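[recover] target loaded
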């Protein structure tokens, strides 16, 4: 079976919801367009909005599992994001000019013993990915099925906040791509490293409750806590659902 692109997701606000796409135009050296364009800094954050900062500076599902139940939609032309959550009213706002609306909206979802969200920041020219370099992420649906089997429960891809989900690979075969260039649609990417996972993946994206020991299952089944890979866009181009992947 040919490896093909099965799902595309972007996350306009880091840690605050995913949006499914049918196609995207990648650019060399850039993150997926509008992916993690904004991030929510908390009261202990050192992020100044002048560049990339590590994930510990931001509110995210690893520390606040209810954030994992947020879904997002972006109106690119208006620069407006709409967020939904099972326990909150729908919110539409501009992250650049109406940050206070998000801070108020998300407050009931934040644990009392964690640093509260305070402001929204951007990293000029790139998305605020977890990797220090501008990256896109690739994950295998067969790997997800294998992990689900290890746990004895079906896992949603949304737990892993990835960009590109691939079907037609053997479980964890994407790890074999590290150090290689891959043609994805009309783009070429270079796979750089495996992704080490955090507690965000333990939370159910429908409820925001931690209900799966994903990290324990990875360790027990495969001897590590890695799932998916980070890649750098080497040649830009359009990528769409159903596109084949080819190792170069």
């Amino acid at each position: 079976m040919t490896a093909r692109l099965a799902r595309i997701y972007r996350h306009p606000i880091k840690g605050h919801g995913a949006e499914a796409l049918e196609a995207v135009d990648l650019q060399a050296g850039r993150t997926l367009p509008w992916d993690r364009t904004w991030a929510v800094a908390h009261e202990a954050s050192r992020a100044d909005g002048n560049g990339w900062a590590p994930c510990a500076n931001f509110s995210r599902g690893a520390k606040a599992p209810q954030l994992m139940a947020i879904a997002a939609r972006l109106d690119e032309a208006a620069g407006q994001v709409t967020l939904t959550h099972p326990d909150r009213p729908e919110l539409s706002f501009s992250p650049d000019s109406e940050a206070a609306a998000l801070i108020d909206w998300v407050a009931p979802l934040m644990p009392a013993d964690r640093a509260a969200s305070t402001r929204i920041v951007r990293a000029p020219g790139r998305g605020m990915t977890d990797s220090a370099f501008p990256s896109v992420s690739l994950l295998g649906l067969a790997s997800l099925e294998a992990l689900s089997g290890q746990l004895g429960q079906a896992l949603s891809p949304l737990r892993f906040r990835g960009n590109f989900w691939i079907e037609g690979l053997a479980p964890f075969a994407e790890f074999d791509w590290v150090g290689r260039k891959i043609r994805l649609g009309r783009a070429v990417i270079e796979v750089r490293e495996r992704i080490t996972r955090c507690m965000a993946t333990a939370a159910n994206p429908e409820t925001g409750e931690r209900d799966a020991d994903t990290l324990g299952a990875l360790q027990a089944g495969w001897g590590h806590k890695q799932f998916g890979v980070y890649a750098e866009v080497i040649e830009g181009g359009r990528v769409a659902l159903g596109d084949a992947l080819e190792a170069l």
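[recover] notes: The helical segments are 99-106, 141-151, 214-222.
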